[in-house]
Give the backbone structure.
Amino acid sequence: MPSLTDGEIRRALKQVEETRKQLNLVDGEGHGTGRLVLVIKPMPTRVTADWMAQQWRDQKRLKKKLGSYPSISLSQAREIFKRDFADMIQRGRSIKIAGDARPGTVADLFEAYVGSLKADGKPSWKEAEKGLNKIADTLGRNRPARDIEPDEIRDIIRPIYQRGKRSMADHVRSYIRSAYSWGLKSEHDYRSTSVRRFRLVYNPAAGIPTEPKNVGTRWLDEEEFIRLYRWLESPDAPVHPPYTRAVRILMLTGQRVEEIARLHVDQWDAHERIIDWSKTKNGKPHAIPVPKIAA
């Protein structure tokens, strides 16, 4: 069977509109690689035309939709069929598991990673999204994620570090490293909802060192602790009031900074003097009593 032409498609659409009978237009012979088929159907108010990949397997005919005509042109449908289906059919694999064979872009990877953080209820997803959006613009949003090299990551981080923003430089490295680590693991994860596969072979940020952390060697003794707390109650220098309250709650509860910073009034039980967290870093809810001095 010869290859389809745009003229044949137009004539077939008109024929179905007049006869109200379905037509299937096959593109080429399809020996060994299945077939690209345009299924034209009469509907109550219109005529639809859908591109389908067709395969005979285990004495059954399988079909999978590629898209609709004319949104996807004849040439585009051929390209998609060749890219995503022809090789699978040639190897005897079912087209039912076929998907977009193009490697995911930098934007695809970062968006999918942020989506996984959001789905897992991680409060850090907003900051990660903000940081990765800027990084994607610098690296090139539409570049394949697997093409990014370590020296490109280094060239993003170095100016930040040289400006004295060492903590920010570490955060940028962490965002990129975490996104690529997720991408490597998600490649064969059947639970992943990402529409793209990234074909990553390594993490370009993994080998970039971090700034050595300055670990504290001393802590406040009891007298210093009390003196700081009293100062926070009545500071002798301009300090934004919420900051002093937050630090005092930290001192009296021993909770994580992020958990105190994100506190909402609804989490406070004034009668019982209890702060309740439904979500925490370890995913387990907990509540703590608050001393009278902090309540």
Q: What stands out?
A: The chain has nine helices and seven strands. The mean pLDDT is 84.
